[in-house]
Amino acid sequence: MKKILLASTLCAVLVYGDAAALLPVEKRTFDQSKYIPDISAILDFSYVNNSVKDDEIAHLELPGVAHGLLGEHSHGDSNHATYNAKNGFNLNYAEVVLSSSVDPFLSMDAVFHFSEHGVEVEEAYFTTTALGHGIRARGGKLNSNFGYLNAQHHHYWDFGDMPLVYEAFLGMHGINELGGQIQWTAPTPFYLMAGFEVLQGTNEQMFGNESVDIEEFSGVEEDKIKGTSAPSLYVGYVKASHDIGDTTIAGGVSYAQGDSMIDHSDDHEGPHVFNGDAKLYGADFVVLHSLDSYSSIKWQSEWLGRELDGIQYNLETFINPNMNKKQSGLYSQLIYTHDKNWKMGVRYDTIYKNDVVANGVNKNMTDDFNKYSAMVEYHTSEFARFRLQYNRNEAMYNEDGNRVDIDTIMLQANISIGAHAAHSF
Predict the structure, then answer these.
(1) Dihedrals φ, ψ of 80, to 5°?
(2) Which pLDDT value is given to residue 95?
(3) Neighbour count for residue 357 (Cβ, 10 Å)
(4) Which domains does the chain have, with CATH numbers?
């Protein structure tokens, strides 16, 4: 009888991992030391050859939409650089990722970006699924789930640069904010998820709530343009997907609304500040067809539309018109994965609507912004890939209002080590 009892005890220990599992639930202790974080590091390095010199490319813009999208530019007391910013070699970033379960109820993730310009916390958040009923909650600094691409990190993109409409409307980091997120997955036979986010609201190209100091400009009566209280950005979305044989179809609609404070008071030419309200609409559609275990065809498209309504404070002319902007664009890309090693694709970017009205007068801004990209990618393994990309950018204009076409050849290396969680579809 003792032998039978001992054998039963040993089997239980093998199944549950330690003898504590044999205790009643109320007497068990939680050993957090067993939750050792997954640690990974990712290096992104590129060689770039632009047909336009660095000192010129930094001054190009999308009239009425955005500027400072290419190259390095100053903002306040610091310099900012986009990915693949300079002709020649670029260390885009070294990314360190920590991820672990905290206890049976929580997990935590943190992503740190190291670059030549400093270190920043890209994401740091906790997540819980312990609420039940298909509910997941998250809080901290995070990438919003607005749209399809926004939640993905740069190293997961199929191209080395962000689509034109994303970067023009939201900046290089997209909607990356402090705040809280709650998502509900419906108990349906297909994937259906709805989410809502309350965020701080500090996006560089569209949202903002901090006051802007303008007392250095002579002739301006106010010493600052007053901001609003945070949090001030609200995001909602519904996403769905369904498998039909070897094909997965996914789509979603998204909406974001918040206060807007776009600070260009440090611009050398035409310093200004926009203060008002901002609305952003999004729709995404993805079709992935698997040809076999390793090869597939993926079509991915997103449309974004935004409306900015408020006052533009021109700090040199002192003419501060009521400004309304309605702008729309999209990208569409087709990716063919040949096998474990080779992948290739093409992408089309456009901003086709650029209605800018100042004090009721349409400024008749250009709305012909197009960009074409093609890439081929080689993977030595799932941890290393090398991409050759060509861009034909027909969207940028100089300060004289003349279009400047840019041809770019880019060779990118993306290498990772350590344990890294799988990316979502």
Answers:
(1) -120, 145
(2) 95
(3) 16
(4) 2-28+39-418 (2.40.160.10)
